[in-house]
Every structure is written in C-alpha cells, then in structure tokens.
Specification:
alpha/beta; two-stranded antiparallel sheet; 8 helices; about 325 residues; globular; 6-stranded mixed sheet; about 30% helix; 8 strands
Length: about 325
C-alpha cells in the first residue's frame, strides 16, 4: 500500500502475526481451517496445533483469540483471517439495497449476521440463505434464483484485481469460490469478539487502534493474492509444493519451510495460512495500517484486504 504520513508513536507494537485460512463449511471441525504464526524477525511461520481432536473448529479459533487478548503484554497480536469483513456498500449506498431496515454500518452488519444465524451451532452462517427476506440477496442453494442477487464488488476487490487477483463477490455462496458462507460465519466471529473484548480488539480499518489497550488487531486477508501479486499462480495444489511456497516466503523476507514440508488441507490450506502469516509481518512492517485518504471512506464502510495497494482509479459501482 502506498505510504502516508504516520507518526512512529502511532504505530502499534506487535508481538506476532497469526494467519488464519478460514472455513465457512457446515459442521464442527474442518481440515481446511488452518492457522500459522510468524514471530518478529525472519523465521519461517509455524503451524498451530488444534487444542482438541485433529482439526480446528471455529469456536476453537474464537477461544484462541480470546486467550490472546487476555495477554497482559504491551504488544498486540496482528491476526489476519480469510473472509470478507463486510459486503459492498459504496456502489449503491447500502449493503442490502431497497431495504429500509437493512444494517448500515459494519458493526450492525455483524450483529445482523449473528441474529439471523444465532440458532446455528459452531458459528455457522448458512441460515441467512433460507431467510424469507435476506436470503434473496445471496446466490445460494437450493434455489439459486436469488431475486435481489447482484455480482457486486467492494473497492478493495477492484483494487486487488488490478494488483493481481480478486476474491469472488461476497454474496456468492456456490462453487469452489464461495465467499458468502465463510464471510457470514466470520461476521459472527467479529460480532462475538467485539461483544466479549470491547476495546481490547480492533477490527481494521473500522476501529481505532489504541496503544497500550488494543491486544488484538484483526485484518482481512486473501492468501491467493499474496502469491498472485508476485506473479505466482497458485493453481490447485501448486502452493503445496515446498519450493513454490519458499519462493513466495522469500519475497516476504521470510525463511522457508523444511524441504520435506507437506502442508495439510485438501487445497493447500496450511500453505495459505503460512504465506498469510509471512505477508502480515511484511506489510505491517511497511506501515500497512495507513489509510489512503481518497479511499478511506470506502475502507471504513466496506473493509480492506491487508496488503492490497491503493487503486487511485477505483470507481464505486465499477464491475
């Protein structure tokens, strides 16, 4: 991201960088849910072992983040999670156009996702798709004929596409590039963290980071982008090749993985968590928290993928 004036004292001291390759799938535990931690310096990130069973659950991740926020150290933990923190807004001036009762702020959107899905266990978000009102905005099974679905894009997604790769629309809940299911589950996570931690957690770029008080800084990530921006194409399983992964890690000033490393997850999910952790460390060191003045209003309303550069030509409403 282009650098802007920022006083050194305004930047948070960070103790670590946690990359989370998220999953919105139904059920309790998911092999695709992978976590990796990078510490200060240049050492290779290391994967985190689930506390129970052999796979992580979303409640496990919530418990881990609550525990990290309880740390009394002065430094904060930077946590990147792979889901859309909000829906598009600035293109038509609403998350859900045509509804006067629609949430109008990111925090209200997270509370909305929590309320609709409150009866679903394990932070699942799929109850939204069958809702009599809000389900019409999502392209999702079993009907696939959402009356209000539009292939809308956030400004950060337009900027990501210009810089290498964009995620799918946030209202799309079908196919391998399903973004909606994971994002709704993630919005529930954000809501619960804000309710439980208050000002000890800051969700960037929506919240202010309070030095000495903020213990968790949450940012949105898109692991594939961290490969594509280097000119590397992580086709299915390609990121699982240790030489490929280490080439990308080196570009983020990180040591590589051992030559016999084989990442877990059917789509190299562990590799995605590892590259995300390294990219978080790299971009945080380059003051990736700076907000481009021209796009700050959109960022505050829609969020931003950490590490995606400003796109001066971004135009609200462009497909």
């Amino acid at each position: 991201m282009r650098q802007y004036e920022s006083k050194p004292s305004s930047l948070p001291a960070l103790s670590g960088f946690l990359g989370i390759d998220w999953s919105g799938a139904k059920g309790q535990r998911h092999t695709g849910l992978q976590l990796a931690m990078a510490r200060l310096g240049t050492a290779a990130p290391h994967s985190l072992t689930p506390p129970r069973a052999t796979s992580w659950s979303r409640p496990d991740v919530l418990d881990l983040l609550l525990g990290l926020a309880a740390d009394t150290a002065d430094a904060a933990m930077l946590v990147g999670i792979d889901f859309a923190f909000a829906h598009p807004f600035v293109d038509v001036g609403a998350y859900y156009p045509g509804r006067a009762d629609a949430p109008a702020t990111p925090a209200a959107l997270w509370a909305h996702a929590e309320a609709i899905n409150a009866a679903e266990p394990y932070l699942y978000g799929g109850a939204m798709f069958g809702h009599a009102v809000w389900g019409d905005f999502y392209l999702a099974p079993p009907h696939y004929a959402a009356a209000r679905y539009q292939s809308r894009r956030r400004i950060t997604e337009l900027a990501a596409r210009a810089a290498g790769r964009s995620p799918s629309p946030t209202f799309k809940a079908v196919g391998a590039d399903n973004v909606a299911t994971g994002s709704l589950a993630g919005m529930r996570l954000l809501h619960q963290l804000k309710q439980k931690l208050a000002n000890r957690v800051a969700v960037w770029p929506f919240d202010q980071i309070v030095l000495g008080q903020t213990k968790l800084i949450l940012v949105e990530i898109f692991p594939s982008f961290y490969f594509y921006r280097l000119g590397m194409v992580p086709a299915r399983r390609a990121a699982a090749h240790v030489g490929f992964l280490n080439q990308a890690l080196a570009a983020y000033d990180s040591a590589g993985m051992a030559s016999d490393f084989v990442p877990a997850g059917k789509d190299a999910d562990e590799a995605d968590a590892i590259i995300a952790a390294a990219a978080l460390r790299y971009f945080a060191g380059a003051n990736g928290f700076a907000l481009p003045p021209a796009q700050e209003p959109a960022m505050r309303q829609e969020g931003w993928i950490f590490g995606v550069p400003e796109w001066p030509d971004a135009v609200a409403g462009q497909p």
